[in-house]
Each structure stands twice: as C-alpha cells, then as structure tokens.
Amino acid sequence: xxxxxxxxxxxxxxxxxxxxxxxxxxxxxxxxxxxxxxxxxxxxxxxxxxxxxxxxxxxxxxxxxxxxxxxxxxxxxxxxxxxxxxxxxxxxxxxxxxxxxxxxxxxxxxxxxxxxxxxxxxxxxxxxxxxxxxxxxxxxxxxxxxxxxxxxxxxxxxxxxxxxxxxxxxxxxxxxxxxxxxxxxxxxxxxxxxxxxxxxxxxxxxxxxxxxxxxxxxxxxxxxxxxxxxxxxxxxxxxxxxxxxxxxxxxxxxxxxxxxxxxxxxxxxxxxxxxxxxxxxxxxxxxxxxxxxxxxxxxxxxxxxxxxxxxxxxxxxxxxxxxxxxxxxxxxxxxxx
Length: 337
Fold this sequence. Notes:
This protein is of the alpha/beta class. It has helices at 43-68, 91-108, 117-123, 168-178, 186-193, 216-227, 231-236, 238-264, 279-292, 309-320; strands at residues 3-8, 13-20, 23-31, 81-87, 112-116, 136-141, 146-153, 156-162, 268-272, 295-297. The strands form 2 sheets. A 5-stranded mixed beta sheet has the order 3-2-1-4-5, sandwiched between helices. A 5-stranded mixed beta sheet has the order 8-7-6-9-10, sandwiched between helices. It starts with a strand and ends in a 17-residue tail after the last helix.
C-alpha cells in the first residue's frame, strides 16, 4: 500500500486528501466565506483562516479515509509521504500549508513532496476511473491561469499556450463586477447565462497569434459597452449580457483548443481548473469533441476548483518516481513549471 497525505492551501481553500495506490479516499475542503463582503480574497484573512482550519481538515481527511479503507490502518504514522502545494498562489496561504507539511515530515520522518498547483489541476483528470491516456491535451482555466498543456506522461507536462494578460477566470469575475454582481461573479454569470441569449450582444475577440490567449480586450469591450448603458438597461438585459459574455469567453478558449488539436494531432482532450466547472464550457468542449471526433474528459465538479485530491494524485506519481524534496524548499507565489 502506498498512502499519500496531501495538503492544499494556495488561496482561500484549506484542503486535505488521502490517496492510496492512486485512488482518492478522502477530499476534505474548508471554504472561507469571510472574503465575500470584500469583493475578493484578502490575503491576510486567508492566511489566518488556513491556520485555524488546517489541523481539523487534515484530521478529518484521515478519519474519512480510515473509515473507508479496511485492508490496512490509515493514520498519520502509516502514511508514506506528505505532498503539499508549493506554488503558485498567495504567499501567506502557501506558507501555512508548506510549514505544516514540513513539520509533519520532520516529526513523522516521512518523505516530503512539493507539488505545482497548475500541474495538479491537469492531473486531476487522472482521478476518475475513466481517464485519458497519453498523450492528451488539457485546457486549464482558473482565476489566475489559462493554459493549454500537452501531457506526455504524469510528470512530463508541456505548456504550449497561455494567456498573455488576464486569465479566463479573471475575465468572468471582472466582467461580473462591471455588471454589478457580487463576488465571486463567475458562477453567477454562468447561472444567469443559462437564461439568456448568447448571441444577443457582440464583444471584441482579441486576435493573438499561436496558441496564446488574451482576455483584456474582451474585458475592455464589455466595459465600454456598459458605460453607454443605463442601470435599468443592464438590469433588464442581465441574462442576455451574461450569456453573451460567457459565449465570447468560451469561444476564445475553444478556438485555441481546436487549433492545438490540429497542430499536435492529439485528440484526447481534457479541461481542468476552477473555470472548468462552468456549464457552458463543459457543454462546449463535449459538443466540439463530438463534432471533430475527439475523446473528451470533463472532471467531476469536486476536482475542478481548488482541492487536495489533485495534490494527492500528483504526489502519488511523484512518489513512484522518487521525486522528493527536503526541508529547505520554500513556497513561491509565481514559480514556473
């Protein structure tokens, strides 16, 4: 039995998971509602909440796993390694998880595994029983990142396209704010979009070469359009505006993904990251897959947003490869792959 304890604390979710032989047995998440009234994540408050949540979250993840796994006891003493999110993220939040993982590693004399948050999002697609084989492409979309990744193996991931400015998640949240929607606005745009006409309004689509993305022009286009409208107009057309904004963002993503398939010849395609929970994107990639003969994979919602299960599955593959780190490693807010 290979048992990995994983810790995720990159932003405002404190999470812990247990993975045994590549199977996720627990995935416990403590969310932080304190940020809602500020319209965004407050780093200092996030760090404090992580310190309050991390012990009970880890304890609960072990209890849940132990209750499910009858073949062998699962305790802190019987885990084989500790994986944690090393980068990227809010530095204060990362520090809480990293220092906790280091302390456990030192006290239990267990190996330590550093995990890159965005690589883990990609490998979340390996958690379900039906998952892609190599090579596969992954469109990874979150609040801070938008990337197309070519996965040749679990530990051979190549970024072949990325945003040159705003990420897709930022485009959702920032345009939601322009519409007067509360934080987090992305899920609200998705909700209202399902009631609206996606072709009612047209917004600028940035022309970026290669496989890279840009969303700043779209955001500016929405801003200029809304500045010319009355509050009543925005309220009366909220559903159509949300549907049109969502349609524009998704079309930018899918057109680049289609181009990536054409360039690489790889027709196994996944999505990952917080924005992959968006219903329009999930539907869009499945429809495009059917149209073009791709085999598409859409992860369960629990593995889309920040979670420790994705850290655990990445830690499992790094454990098999003997890819460990030591106590001198430090978290990084913007570490490259």
